Amino acid sequence: MDRIWGQACAELEQSVGPNNYNHWIKPLRLTAIDDGAARFASPTRFISDWVNRHFAKEIMAVLTRNGAPVERLRFDVGAVAAARPAAQAAAPAGHAPEAPTARAPRADLGAPLDPRYTFSNFVVGKPNELAHAAARRVAEGGPVGFNPLFLYGGVGLGKTHLMHAIAHDYQTRHPAAQVLYLSAEQFMYRFVQALRESSIMDFKSMFRNVNMLMVDDVQFIAGKDSTQEEFFHTFNALVDQGKQIVISADRAPAEIKGLEERIKSRLSCGLIVDLHPTTYELRLGILQSKTEVFRAQQPDLEIGAGVLEFLAHRISTNVRVLEGALQRLFAHASLLRREITLEVAQECLADILRTNDRKISIDDIQRKVAEHYNIRLADMMGPKRARNVARPRQIAMYLSKQLTSRSLPEIGRRFGGRDHTTIMHGVRKIEELLAEDSSLVEDVAVLKRMLEG
Ligand SMILES: Nc1ncnc2c1ncn2[C@@H]1O[C@H](COP(=O)(O)OP(=O)(O)OP(=O)(O)O)[C@@H](O)[C@H]1O
C-alpha cells in the first residue's frame, strides 16, 4: 500500500499543487484497496470530507493509473498516518524535509488553493496594476515595507485570484514555509470549534506558527466580537514576529461597519490597495487571454470579428460574469460546431446581456439622438422619410441594437410599430456608412459616450 500511495502522492503533488497536497492529501494514509474501494486513515473528519469533495476524482484517477483501479474512497477517521509512504519519505527536490506530524494538525485549518489562480493567468491593466505589483512583491518573500497587504474591491474583481497567486508563488519560492490561506468565515469556524473542543491553545499555536497568513473577505468578522478579539491577537503575534499577512475585503478598513477601531487601525498600518472597476481595455485583455487558453484545448474554435469587443463593451459588471459568458459561448460552439458570430453570441447570452444592460433604454437613445440632430422626438416613431429625419432614426435603431439587448421586433415596436426587417435594414445601412463616413463615426462615438455616461 505504501508503495502505491507513495507513487500516487508524487503525482498528486504535481496535479493539485504543493499547498493543497500538504494541507489535504499528505495527512492521509492508504490502508487498503478492496473491491474497487480505496481505504484511507484520516486524522479528522474535516480532512476526509474535504478530500472527498475536492480531490476524490483526481485520487481515483491517479491510483487507477498506478495499477490500482478504484471507483470509491472510504475514510477511517482517527489516528494520524503512522508511516510515511515511500515516495513521500524522500522529500521532493527543493522541499524541506519535515516531521510527518508537523503539518498534520494544521491540515484542517486552511482552504485549498485554486491551481488556475496564478500570476501568469492574471491580466494586468490600469485598474489593478498597483494591487498586482504589491502582490508580486509580497510573493517574493523577504522583508517587505508593508504589513499587512490589504486588498479591497468590488465583487469579482480578482482579490481571491491575487491572493491564491501570492500563495502559489511564495510557496514555490519557499517550499518549506507554511502558508495558510482561509476565509474569515473559516477562521471563525475554526475558532469556535477550538473553543468547543477546548483546544484553543493548539489553535493559537497553529495560527501563530505560519510564515504567511492570508485571510479572505475579512469583513465577515465585523460584529463578531470574540472572533475579532482572537483575530486581533493572532494578527499582532504574527506581525511582531515579522510574518507577512495578506487580507482582502470588499471595502477599505475604515469603511467596514462593526469592525473594532483597533483592528481598523492595525489593518491600515500596511499597504491598502484597491482593485478598481474594470475598464473596457482590461476586460478585452481578459477575454483575449481566456480565449487563448480555450483555443489551446480546442484549436478549431472560430470566433467572429468583434465578438470579444462586443462582450467587453456590454458586460461591465465583473470578471466572473464575463468569464461565465465566455465559457457558455465556447460550450455552445463546441456542441453545435458553429462559429461564434455576433448573432450567436447575442442569442446565446441574451439573459446575461439583459441583466448587464447598463440601463440604457430605447427611450434614452431616441431622445439623445433627436436632440443631437435637432429633430422632434415624435419623428423617431413617425413615418417621415426625408433624409434629415430618416438618417437619425436609423442611427437610433443602430444604437438600440448595439447598446440594449432588445430583439429586432421589440425595437421595431418602439419605433412606431415598424417591422423587424425595417430595423435590420436601418442597422445595416448605418454599418455600411460607418465604414466610409468618418464624421458619422465621430457622431456615433459621441452619442455612445453620452448614453453610457
Ligand atoms: N485581472 C484578471 N485576470 C484574469 N482573471 C481575472 C482577473 N480578475 C478577475 N479574474 C477572474 O474573475 C473571477 C473572479 O475573481 P475573484 O474570485 O478573484 O474575485 P473577488 O474579487 O475575490 O470576488 P469576491 O468579492 O466575489 O470574492 C476569477 O475566476 C478570476 O480568475
Question: Can you describe this structure?
Answer:
With 453 residues, this protein is of the alpha/beta class. It folds into four domains: 2-107, GMP Synthetase, Chain A, domain 3 (2-Layer Sandwich), CATH 3.30.300.180; 119-275, 3-Layer(aba) Sandwich (Rossmann fold), CATH 3.40.50.300; 280-355, Helicase, Ruva Protein, domain 3; 362-452, DnaA protein, C-terminal DNA-binding domain (Chromosomal Replication Initiator Protein Dnaa, Chain: A). 56% of the residues lie in helices and 10% in strands. The protein contains 23 helices and eight strands. The protein has helices spanning 2-16, 18-25, 45-54, 56-65, 86-89, 100-103, 129-140, 159-173, 184-196, 200-208, 225-240, 261-267, 280-297, 307-314, 319-336, 342-348, 350-355, 362-373, 378-381, 387-403, 408-414, 420-436, 438-452, and strands spanning 29-34, 37-42, 72-77, 149-153, 179-183, 212-216, 244-249, 271-275. It has a five-stranded parallel beta sheet, with helices on both faces. Strands 1-2-3 form a three-stranded mixed beta sheet. Strand 1 (29-34) and strand 2 form a beta hairpin. The longest helix is centred in the middle third of the chain and has 18 residues, at 280-297. The radius of gyration is 28 Å and the shape is elongated. The structure holds adenosine-5'-triphosphate. ATP binds at residues 156, 158-160. Residues 145-278 form the AAA+ ATPase domain. Keywords: ATP-binding, Cytoplasm, DNA replication, DNA-binding, Lipid-binding, Nucleotide-binding.
